[in-house]
Amino acid sequence: MALQAAALLPSALSVHKEGKSNASLKDTVFFGASLSDHLKFDSNPTARTKMEFSQGKLSIGPIRAQTAVTTPSMNQAAQEGKKTLRKGNVLITGASSGLGLATAKALAETGKWHVIMGCRNFLKAEKAAKAVGIAKENYTVMHLDLASLDSVRQFVDNFRRSGKPLDVVVCNAAVYLPTAKEPTFTAEGFELSVGTNHLGHFLLSRLLLDDLKQSDYPSRRLIIVGSITGNTNTLAGNVPPKANLGDLRGLAGGLNGINSSSMIDGGEFDGAKAYKDSKVCNMLTMQEFHRRYHEETGIAFASLYPGCIATTGLFREHIPLFRLLFPPFQKYITKGYVSEEEAGKRLAQVRRTSKNNKYKFTNTVNHDMCTQ
Ligand code: NDP
Ligand code: PMR
Q1: pTM for this prediction
Q2: Ligand 2 interacting residues, C-beta cut-off 6 A
Q3: Residue 286: pLDDT over 90
Q4: ipTM value greater than 0.85
Q5: Which domains, and CATH codes, for the chain?
Q6: Most CB contacts within 10 A, which of 22, 61, 74, 313?
Q7: For the residues 76-87, what does the mean pLDDT come to?
């Protein structure tokens, strides 16, 4: 059964182009693929996404979850049948706290996975893994700072040098800067939330796709954590400021706040909106990866909203009153609350099954983007 509306964001998908057209806009269409030299990797120009301007409108096509039912190719069906005795290797970004750590724990405890914790703070990650009791032989911490594209490339090189196969990638790390008055920037000068949450993960995913392709593991997957707050077809997604990618003019200009706006849609900086925009990009990226690469590779591409984990470090920059009231508000009023442990189990479960030769999510996440 198809998942619904993983990334439904009508306002971002069919937007009137305002003002002058930007000559380089066409180049940005794959959420950073051609944003600048930093992010150029697709050597096949014909492989571009179908997002195009036509008659003054940016049309990206309907956005559905990547996890929509698809029929596996013959190769893939054969792979499904293959038995792999080795442990799977799963990379989880931002596994030093919250959802990433809980997912690492849930996967390590199955005894079937070796978790590569891709983290910016090595010591914090080591301590966190120990604190939650992940056995030493079940994890490796590797340095990864998603706010630096050089660090992403370095990480990929280091990982390849380890000689380990890569079977699953979970893009989980994120920053949320709702109270920032001014934008801050990544090493390459992109606004920090979109730079970290989307562009860093985009480059990582694009590079690691080759490694996933080479894996002989039966269920290879690339998962990005999305958020309900980017879905304007939900109540949560309608809390201002709403996600909106506009005509992508800020992204086209480099998100640097100098030659262009630091916001994707070209507007005034707003940290909460930048986060929501970044999550829309994450969800759309998985949709596009699915469209481009699923059939050919058999890899499952998905985005997931795990529920509202109101107690994590994600809200560390929010005002103290918000941090006090947000957990009870989500627990007792919206009932969208989930514990870190439960959310970790959900993310750990995101997989496809081969029942009836079709893929299907087996998680039970309580929002429309993940209903079965
Ligand atoms: P946390 O703040 O606990 O976890 C975020 C993780 O990302 C931390 O480990 C952090 O590292 C890491 N991180 C941040 N910046 C970078 C960077 N530049 N390079 C590498 N790692 C980085 O928050 P959550 O666990 O809540 O968030 C996890 C995911 O879940 C995010 O994608 C978030 O958007 C998503 N999500 C969360 C929801 C919630 O209600 N909490 C709801 C919906 C989605 P460090 O430990 O060093 O700070
Ligand atoms: Mg939201 C129907 C319910 C619902 C759900 C599931 C969420 C999830 N929120 C809901 C409703 C509301 N929220 C309502 C009615 C309000 C107005 C009072 C509201 C407010 C609100 C704020 C101020 N909510 C928030 C914030 C944040 O700063 C959080 C955010 O947007 O972070 C990006 C947030 C969230 N609400 C959620 C979830 C899951 C979040 C955190 C989103 C994330 O971490 O990705």
Answers
A1: 0.83
A2: 176, 178, 227-229, 235-236, 239, 272, 275-276, 308, 314, 334, 336
A3: yes
A4: yes
A5: 28-57 (no CATH), 60-361 (3.40.50.720)
A6: 22
A7: 60
